[in-house]
Amino acid sequence: xxxxxxxxxxxxxxxxxxxxxxxxxxxxxxxxxxxxxxxxxxxxxxxxxxxxxxxxxxxxxxxxxxxxxxxxxxxxxxxxxxxxxxxxxxxxxxxxxxxxxxxxxxxxxxxxxxxxxxxxxxxxxxxxxxxxxxxxxxxxxxxxxxxxxxxxxxxxxxxxxxxxxxxxxxxxxxxxxxxxxxxxxxxxxxxxxxxxxxxxxxxxxxxxxxxxxxxxxxxxxxxxxxxxxxxxxxxxxxxxxxxxxxxxxxxxxxxxxxxxxxxxxxxxxxxxxxxxxxxxxxxxxxxxxx
Amino acid sequence: xxxxxxxxxxxxxxxxxxxxxxxxxxxxxxxxxxxxxxxxxxxxxxxxxxxxxxxxxxxxxxxxxxxxxxxxxxxxxxxxxxxxxxxxxxxxxxxxxxxxxxxxxxxxxxxxxxxxxxxxxxxxxxxxxxxxxxxxxxxxxxxxxxxxxxxxxxxxxxxxxxxxxxxxxxxxxxxxxxxxxxxxxxxxxxxxxxxxxxxxxxxxxxxxxxxxxxxxxxxxxxxxxxxxxxxxxxxxxxxxxxxxxxxxxxxxxxxxxxxxxxxxxxxxxxxxxxxxxxxxxxxxxxxxxxxxxxxxxxxxxxxxxxxxxxxxxxxxxxxxxxxxxxxxxxxxxxxxxxxxxxxxxxxxxxxxxxxxxxxxxxxxxxxxxxxxxxxxxxxxxxxxxxxxxxxxxxxxxxxxxxxxxxxxxxxxxxxxxxxxxxxxxxxxxxxxxxxxxxxxxxxxxxxxxxxxxxxxxxxxxxxxxxxxxxxxxxxxxxxxxxxxxxxxxxxxxxxxxxxxxxxxxxxxxxxxxxxxxxxxxxxxxxxxxxxxxx
Lengths: 290, 534
Description:
The structure holds two protein chains of two kinds. Chain A is mainly alpha-helical.
């Protein structure tokens, strides 16, 4: 009983110390707050958006920002603010799910390669070498073009394209932790490999992963925007920030608000996630700071 | 410091997203970069030279919206390749300015009877390589058409090659297998090709087109530009502008920018969003040209699609407000179609417009939808090419269909793949887009080419009465009888709606005010030989 309490306290203290370090980083906190706000916006989109994202009003195309339409309307008279609010659902969905997919596959492969080493490591890493030799964006485009346009395929394309990053990081962590005394102790008491990997090594290797995942969401949102920009991401009438940029680019000279607001939204989201990721890295491993 | 850099980098990333008209733009701009500079220099040179009256050294830079893809004489006959090929190759005659028949390599012609035509060719015409153009080249070109693409086969569809004969070096008698109302309008599609060069080229003149036209081919940088220079062997004498460079500018908004920055002198595909700004400027002229084309939705009438049901097609037509398409997609350039036919068509009958042509009526649409037995749980598939205009139309139609409770899914294809997708009626598509027109500018030609069972019937429209009537009408010598038959054909396609005509389109052109002589040749082309700089 007392051992459990101690373990819990230990975990809490680690979490609290990380949080307290994070709190001291104003930029990271600003990033966290903005990310939370964007998440809330996505969650409560129907309550926040004054219009439907697909609601067309051909009598009011290209309206400038006004009290009726805070960010104006697009080429089909759709409210840009409402489309941005609903668009956060698509952009965040792509961002989080693709990172989740990439990290699950990448961490599993990296853990196997790092723990077992030898031929397994060699085969997996050479396979990932080949995979990584293709630029991530090109890989995503190739996969999305093969699977076809659409949200789910974009998630798969971005996810698969970033698997090597997580695999390599996990492998590197495993290689350094593999030789620690507590791992050797676990091996000595005949603990099974999956238990050693999951209980002893993985928790101690996760810190850089968390940072990478936070940054990865930002990267995935940008890649998704790029895919939508070239027509391989979200399909109409779904609103997605990159797709909004793409649709508005023909009118950039006369109606810049069509691209300005989606562009700013992408910028703020990516910036916030990067600031948060940067702060998390400092908080999780203070030695890295400066 | 690190965070500041991160902020700046993130900002740059977001801005680069905004500007990433992206990869495509950069490629075009980079390739056009040298062209832009050259264009500007040349433009300056042109202005300086205006006093001396020497313009031939200033190159003409012309925008085209896509790479021609194929410059073989009878390969891709899309708008952009034809704009280039039209300067290199020549035909016997063409529908030229104001769509008037203009003799080119044919001095004259006469129709001996309903199945025999005699063409007298111009003498002294040489190809750009110096070879003489003779009757045997004409016959060779006709044979190339016969063995060419689906489109080129149409040019000589009714030609009786066994009985077509060369009378002398400059006279050919063309025999037809049966009377054909569209022989003359179709036959004008045949470019005259040098037999010797074609046989020697090994690639069907793809890498080095050789024709009798005012310009000859110099260089083609795929995806970037095509350069032509004056053909010193041209029978028409010297042209005023020696060099013509076609610059590929795929991004609509970039075209007007190129014009304003001196990168091009002539924009053949001006974006509708740029019209007002250029029109208000005193430096440029903008031309709005009503076309013979009608922007339409094309139904998959095969058994593989729910649109096999006539009632469903009618319901969809009644659900759509063509005014919405005109406003939302075409920025009010053009006009709504009042019948199954563009009113500029030569055999257009004003009486057709007196009848209601699917004016939006949601009540009627709902009744027809119920009668069609369509299962609304199954979404309809709209396929579009990567053309933004088609995407916009698809989104508007998607919204109209939602008012009937129909869910429509939009799938976008790259242009080349799009055509293959339409050809595959079992591929899962229900609605696509097509712009209908015909070289003859006759509705009968459209019926024959796009909806008859022997035509390019991508909609898989089947109506026995229609097929019989089309066959009769195209060989009917009596114009009055043919007009009655066309009336019946229009009634059938209006009732059966294999395609729903929405907007009679208009093309927008813009050019520098120092460019003189620009007019639209044929439907979407121009003649560089008739242009000069002030």
